[in-house]
Amino acid sequence: MTSTAGVVVVGGGQAAFSVVSTLRASGYDAPVTVFAAEHHLPYQRPPLSKKAHTEPEGLRVELVPESFYRERNIDLRLGDDVVALDTAAATVVSRTGARVPYAHLVLATGARNRPLPVPGAELDGVHALRSLDDALTIGRALTTARDVVVVGGGFIGLELARVALARGARVTVVELADRLLSRAVSPELELPLRERHEHAGLQVLTGTGVRALEGPGRLDRVVTDREHLAADLVVYGIGAIPRDDLAREAGLAVDDGVVVDEQLRSVTDPRISAVGDCARHPHPHAEGPVRLESVQNAIDQGTLVGRRIAGSPASYESLPWFWSDQGDLKLQIAGLRSPADEVRLVPGDSPERLAGYAFRDGLLVAVETLNWPAEHLAARRLLERRTPVSAGDLAGTTLGALARARRAAEVRA
Amino acid sequence: MPTVIFQLPDGTERKVIAASGTVLMQAAVSGGVEGIVAECGGNASCATCHVYVDSEQAELVGPPNDVEDEMLDFTAAERRPTSRLSCQIHLSDALDGLVVHVPEEQV
After folding, report:
1. Distance CA A236, CA A215 (A)
2. In chain B, which residues have their Cβ closer than 8 Å to the Cβ of A299?
3. B34 contact residues in A (CB cutoff 8 A)
4. Across the A/B interface, how many CB contacts are shorter than 8 Å?
5. What is the three-class DSSP state of A86?
6. What is the largest CA-CA distance in chain A?
7. Distance set, CA B21 to CA A124, A311, B5, B79 (Å)
8. Which phi and psi (to 5°) does residue A120 adopt?
9. Which one of A224, A358, A360, A400 is CB 3.0 to 4.6 Å from A337, fit for a cystine?
10. B46/A contact by beta carbon, under 8 A
11. What integer pLDDT is reported at residue A57 of this predicted model?
12. What's the confidence (pLDDT) of residue A409?
């Protein structure tokens, strides 16, 4: 019996998939084992809050079919999770008792939902969204829900709120901060975004805390700082906490995420990497170490670690980007904005389009767009090449026009 | 259902039998075609599923839609006359034997 140590990946999400598919595509031929706690094949999460409730039966979210793993000799252990990590012996132990040695270990454990810390959060009719099973449960609940309260005005909350609205429910969003998307978008863009949500029929209560969820057995109202709201369904999305317990228990450096270096190696043990939502890493576009929750980050970090293990090391410097579909609003963000950055709103060439350019020391650092994917892509191209774009360069023009002009000049040169 | 052929930058090709009602991007991803990243999962948000339709079949496939057309100006690999986002190409039996070329880079 052979027990050659290869790569063990803990977690079965997008980042894990990115690691293992990259390993095989890069010619890595030692054993690859994936421990995925859920019973589903690795799947895409973005559609869960955007589409799962409108087409729960037709929802196809798996990243690739089972044959993909089989053909590439990837040992995918669905429904099993790593419960202990012995860094001295370089071995993991799973819930079912499997002991697997590793030459490299990749933590792709993702994040868990921050629980709603109020009385009544355990009532029937109260849900959070993280997994495919959660999405299907919420989708079923929406078939009968009349009064929906969404706690949390972030990406997930607003996506779900618009899904519920489209399903015919009365929907109220309750947000503790004094504005929506307070961590994700600038105050400048938040104003028109909120107006559009309200125009579509969402009731939005900002600066409002939830005190309790109440009902006789089953939920029937939400008690807030201000008023009582009738509710037969509550969905909450108030942030996520990285799943870094395994790393902490094994003695690795952890600080709201597994602390890794610029190549995404644990700063404590270079045989261990962390990728995706659970990793805290240095980034050239950020002032300090960051932990990013996005598909782009999961894919790009997984790719980087897969290539590194297969023999092509590099530092992580992918331009961060985010997107959120909220009803008829497509919100996209390229780059990392800081609260102190100066934001200039620019109207697009049609009324539904809008961009916010964020400048730091006079240079463009991030771009937020509404319903304007081409402008978003132009921003990504310019920001990822780190070509300086000044506020003056953008006077009276758009990034799209600027990028086209620069390209034309390059061709002429 | 149609069979589609992806010509990869290294000169190899991947033949994929598409499932009914899918788009070309999904066929690529299901078939494990490297080089079709599809970060956004098919929402015309990211332009990481860019392909070049074989020029002889370009007419059959048709032109990009308006939003797609704008996005194609900013793909990672150069835009060519038959560039499309594969998430916007709906497959049918009429496209059986479709050949597309996968660009060198997507992100």
Report:
1. 17
2. 37, 39
3. 21, 25
4. 66
5. strand
6. 74
7. 37, 40, 17, 27
8. 95, 0
9. A358
10. yes
11. 56
12. 84
Residues of chain B with pLDDT under 50: none
Distance, CA of A187 to CA of A343 (rounded, Å): 9
Contact A374/B71, CB-based, under 8 Å? Answer: yes
H or E stretch including B71? helix B66-71
Query: Which residues in B lie closer than 8 A to residue A60 (C-beta atoms)?
Result: 26
Neighbours of B95 (CB within 10 A): 19
Instruction: Enter the pTM of the model.
Output: 0.94
pLDDT number for residue B19 = 81
In whole angstroms, what is the distance from residue B36 CA to residue B97 CA? 19
Which of B41, B45, B75 minimises the CB distance to A332? B45
d(CA A171, CA A162): 8
Chain A stretch 63-92, residues whose beta carbon is closer than 8 A to a beta carbon of chain B: 63-65, 68, 71-72
> In this predicted structure, what is the pLDDT of residue A53?
60
What crossing angle do the helices spanning A187-200 and A155-166 adopt, rounded to 10°? 20
> Which residues fall within 8 angstroms of residue B7, CB to CB, at 6 or more apart?
B13, B99, B100, B101, B102
Q: Which residues between 10 and 39 in chain B have a beta carbon less than 8 angstroms from any beta carbon of chain A?
A: 26, 29-30, 32, 34, 37, 39
Of B39, B43, B74, Cβ closest to residue A296: B39
Measured distance CA(A254)–CA(A223) in Å, rounded: 36
* Per-residue pLDDT of chain A in tens (413 residues, 90 and over written 9): 346 899 999 999 999 999 999 999 999 999 999 999 999 999 999 888 887 566 555 567 888 889 999 999 999 999 999 999 999 999 999 999 999 999 999 999 999 999 999 999 999 999 999 999 999 999 999 999 999 999 999 999 999 999 999 999 999 999 999 999 998 999 999 999 999 999 999 999 999 999 999 998 889 999 999 999 999 999 999 999 999 999 999 999 999 999 999 999 999 999 999 999 999 999 999 989 999 999 999 999 999 999 999 999 999 999 999 999 999 999 999 999 999 999 999 999 899 999 999 999 999 999 999 999 999 999 999 999 888 999 999 999 999 999 888 888 887 87
Contact B71 A318 (CB under 8 A): no
Q: A 381-410 residues with CB below 8 A of B?
A: 381, 400, 403-404
Where b means 16+ CB within 10 Å and e means fewer, A188-222 reads: bbbeebbebbeebebbbbbebebeebebeeebbbb
Q: Which residue has the tokens 């859920």?
A: A38
Q: How far apart are CA A368 and CA A375, in angstroms?
A: 9
ipTM, two decimals, is: 0.91
Closest residue to A299, CB basis, from B26, B39, B75: B39
Token digits of residue A151: 């706690």
Residue B42 has what DSSP assignment? S
Sheet containing strand B50-53, strands side by side: B13-17, B3-7, B98-101, B50-53, B83-85
Q: Is A73 helix (H, G, I), strand (E, B) or coil?
A: coil
The single residue listed with the structure tokens 């955007």 is A50
